[in-house]
Automatic annotation (TrEMBL):
It holds the Pfam family GGDEF. GO terms for biological process: cell adhesion involved in single-species biofilm formation; negative regulation of bacterial-type flagellum-dependent cell motility. GO terms for molecular function: diguanylate cyclase activity. PANTHER family: DIGUANYLATE CYCLASE DGCM-RELATED (PTHR45138:SF9), REGULATORY COMPONENTS OF SENSORY TRANSDUCTION SYSTEM (PTHR45138). It comes from the Bacteria. It catalyses: 2 GTP = 3',3'-c-di-GMP + 2 diphosphate. Residues 183-312 form the GGDEF domain. This is diguanylate cyclase. It is an enzyme of class 2 (transferase). CDD domains: GGDEF.
């Protein structure tokens, strides 16, 4: 029976806690489990949508890579694992037993299920559980560091890192000329109309409640893979992946309409304006923000409660183009 040394345990903990990106942390965890506990295989099933209980296999270490389609019986066991918060045993068609471990954040929100295949469950179960607890605690620290304390959305500090990853993705597609999927990235800035009047009339406590409920509307209305940020005050930012500008406009208008129809307790109805721009290869985060902000400014000064696209405003002659072909603004 394989028995890990103290040095081995500490080395894996150091490697695990050196990561700051959640995806890289998942890979590091799978490596640690595979090498430290010596199982046959490790799989990480991330819970992508809490409401529909949609799981996706994000990491596989050791063993054969399974089909992207999760079998119905395994899906049921993953749901049971998350619902009970207890480890479950799943027997595959080939007779191998997979031990499923639930992983949750500090607020008991389910994050993922770790599947471990090993010949001797009793030998590694305790170490696996402890290592997963370290992972769970560290994920909670990362989330607390990345989230806005009032709304729970991503905070401004994390924006630069997230948007740079998106720009890199766009660059890679551009270099490969990989437009088969026909997907584009956009960044939008939202600003609650006349929010100062809300604070002046109802006080900052109710103002904070409006911000919290607005953030909830973003979470409920927009898609699970959209990146949602609170930039401060009544300003929010989101990064989207869409097929084209028309789809992006539809998504944003639908959200704007939902906000306008929502009854905020004691305050009544409010509206929101938004400006958005496409993220291009070799873009710079500050330039992306500036373009979206110009479109937002236009929306604010042309009636409010509307969504404006920077590129369309330029094409229509309503704005002067502030970027050249390289994606750098001209001063």
């Amino acid at each position: 029976m394989y028995s890990p040394t103290i040095q081995g345990v500490l080395a894996k903990l150091i490697a695990l806690t050196s990561e700051r990106d959640v995806n890289a942390l998942e890979i590091s965890l799978a490596h640690a489990l595979f090498e430290l506990v010596a199982p046959g295989a490790v799989a990480i099933y991330k819970l992508e949508d809490v409401h529909s209980k949609k799981f996706a296999l994000t990491v596989m270490e050791g063993g054969d890579v399974p089909s992207a389609q999760i079998p119905a019986d395994l899906q049921h066991m993953l749901e049971q694992c998350v619902a009970t918060g207890q480890r479950q045993q799943y027997v595959r068609q080939d007779g191998e037993t997979v031990t499923l471990y639930p992983v949750s954040c500090a607020k008991n929100k389910p994050l993922a299920v770790i599947g471990v295949t090993a010949p001797e469950v009793a030998g590694f179960d305790q170490i696996t559980g402890m290592l997963l607890q370290v992972y769970q605690n560290f994920i909670a620290l990362i989330n607390d560091n990345e989230q806005d304390t009032l709304t729970g959305l991503l905070n401004r500090k994390t924006f630069e890192h997230k948007v740079n990853k998106v720009v890199t993705r766009v660059q890679n597609r551009h270099q490969r000329e990989d437009d088969a999927l026909g997907l584009h990235y956009y960044m939008a800035i939202f600003d609650i109309d006349h929010f100062k009047l809300v604070n002046d009339r109802y006080g900052h406590l109710l103002g904070d409640e409006v911000l919290l409920l607005f953030a909830q509307q973003m979470t409920y209305s927009l898609r699970d893979h959209d990146l949602l940020f609170r930039f401060g005050g009544e300003e929010f930012v989101a990064i989207f992946e869409c097929h084209d500008q028309q789809e992006m406009q539809m998504v944003l208008d639908r959200f704007r309409e939902r906000v306008a129809e929502f009854e905020f307790p004691q305050v009544g109805r409010i509206t929101v304006s938004a400006g958005y721009t496409e993220i291009m290869a070799y873009d710079v985060s500050s330039h992306i923000i500036d373009r979206a902000d110009v479109a937002l400014y236009y929306a604010k000064h042309h009636g409010r409660n509307r969504v404006c696209n920077y590129e369309r405003l330029v094409a229509e002659g309503a704005l002067e183009n502030k970027r050249n072909e390289g994606g750098v603004e001209l001063f």
